[in-house]
Amino acid sequence: MRAADAAWHVNYRFYHDDFGVTSHTADMSWHQNLGNSTQVIPMLRYYTQSAANFFTNVDNLTRPATNFQSSDYRLSAFGAISGSLALKTTFGNWDATLTGERYLANEKYSAFNVSQLSTALVRYVSVSLGLDYSF
C-alpha cells in the first residue's frame, strides 16, 4: 500500500474576553500532495461564540450613555460553519493559491444560549486567488 503523501491538520482555539464573549473554533484540513509542486486542501471549520454582556439587537437611545450597548451583529451569540477547497501550486519562487469557500452563520449553530437574535448574520460564497513570491 502506498503512503498517502498527505497531512491532516486539526486545530482548536478557545477565547474569552472582558466583554463577556467566549468562543470556540475547531477546524480540520487535509493537505494532499499531487506531485512535487501541487496540493489540494479541503477544509471544514466550526465557530461558536456567546454574546457580549452589552449586546442588544436594537439600540435603546433613551438609556443613559453610561449604560453601554451595541447592536453590532459580531457581538451577538451565533455559530458558523464553513468549508473550503483550495488548490495550491508552486512554480519557481512563486506560490499560487485558488480557494473557494462557503460560510454560513446562524444563531441555530450556536453552542451558547441565544437570548437576542441578530438580524445581520451573514452567508457568503467567496473565491480568492493569492500569489506569493519568496526571495
The coarse silhouette is elongated
Low-confidence stretches: none
- Give the total of beta strands: 6
Q: What's the mean pLDDT score?
A: 93
- Can you count the helices? 0
Number of domains: 1
Class from secondary-structure proportions: mainly beta
Approximate helicity band: under 10%
Termini separation comes to 38 Å
List SSEs in N-to-C order: EEEEEE
**Largest sheet: spatial strand order:** 1-2-3-4-5-6
Proportion of beta-strand residues: over 45%
Task: Describe this entry's structure for a reader.
The protein is mostly beta strands and 135 residues long. It has one domain (6-133). Helix content is 0%, strand content 55%. The protein contains no helices and six strands. It has a six-stranded antiparallel β-sheet with strand order 1-2-3-4-5-6, with no helix packed on it. A hairpin with a 2-residue loop joins β4 (78-91) and β5 (94-106). The two termini are 38 Å apart.
Write the layout of secondary structure elements.
Layout: E1 6-16, E2 22-34, E3 38-49, E4 78-91, E5 94-106, E6 123-133
Antiparallel strand pairs: 1-2, 2-3, 3-4, 4-5, 5-6
Report a brief summary of the structure:
The chain is an all-beta fold and 135 residues long. The chain has strands spanning 6-16, 22-34, 38-49, 78-91, 94-106, 123-133.
